[in-house]
Specification:
The chain folds into 2 domains: about 15-190, Probable tRNA modification gtpase trme, domain 1 (Gyrase A, domain 2); about 200-315, Elongation Factor Tu (Ef-tu), domain 3 (Beta Barrel). It has 7 helices and 16 strands. It has helices at about 35-40, 50-55, 85-100, 125-130, 170-175, 185-190, 230-235; strands at about 20, 25-30, 55-60, 65-75, 80-85, 105-110, 115-120, 140-145, 145-150, 160-165, 240-250, 260-265, 270-280, 285-295, 300-305, 305-315. The strands form 3 sheets. The chain has a 6-stranded antiparallel barrel with strand order 11-14-13-12-15-16. It has a 5-stranded antiparallel sheet with strand order 1-7-10-9-8, covered by helices on one side. Strands 3-4-5-2-6 form a 5-stranded antiparallel sheet.
Length: about 325
Amino acid sequence: MTTTAKALPALSSLPSAFVIHLDNYSAISLNGEEQSKYLQGQVTCDVATLNELKLINGAHCNAKGKMYATFRLFDYQGSHLLFQPKATLERSLAELKKFGVFAKVEISHASELSYVVVGGEESHAVIQQYFEQLPDDKNPIVTKGDVQAIYLAGQIKQYLLVLPKTNVDTLIESLALPSIASDVFTLLAIADGFPAMSSEAIEQYVPQMLNVQAINGISFTKGCYLGQETVARMKYLGKNKRALYYLTGNATQTVSTSSIIEKAMGENWRKAGDVIASYQDDLGNLSIQAVLASDIEPSAVLRIKENTDSVLTIASLPYSLDSDE
């Protein structure tokens, strides 16, 4: 039997294999003769590479280059899926539909699908039992019937399973793994430096402010798309002065996406940035994704404004902020 856990474990305390039924993520579906052509003009990534790469990261921006959403793009049964937090999906879907009426494409919320993560250092053994081939960096997607397994590169092994909602309970039962709260997927995103946008972040940041270039989510050679002028200016004119950081620490109070990060300036404190996503384990340890000045000192003394006893440290990200592709 699958065990259900409400606990919020630390990154170092995760089971060797676990399952997460993602109730806080979903996807936008694009289907039709011009699905690739249309999407190419709307997002930062090069949709033309999807056939070869199978899985690509990207962002959806407004005309001024401010993001509606960040996503993982892949195909499922012939449709393009933009997998993202539910917090950004509604707005991104509405904006894609607004221009989609002029193309041969159907755009909808893929609400008939469910999304399950199998993770942990031994998760590959579980996936191998179900699929004939194990997805990896070179071949990130494998399919068995109507279940699709997608390898998500990260510090901890993760496989995203996409399947019809009607079959998800049976699948989870068959995996016989400890069930972890969906918030843990946010923790994994924070540690991996993958933007986990909330509704508060919509239209607040250009892609480089959330390190989308560092996760290969921006093509600077693909041609025109919505917001391209601003995104290109940030790269070629050096206009961007902010970046996404991984902070760790502790706090006695709950941290939210409306919380503010402060930096010690002598005996005073000044605003240093904003929280994009946060995770607080059962021992009070914090993992935070925050936008700060790109030239902030690694030794900067930081805290949560609403929690003056909190102490935050800048942790390492698994990529370089100098990467452009």
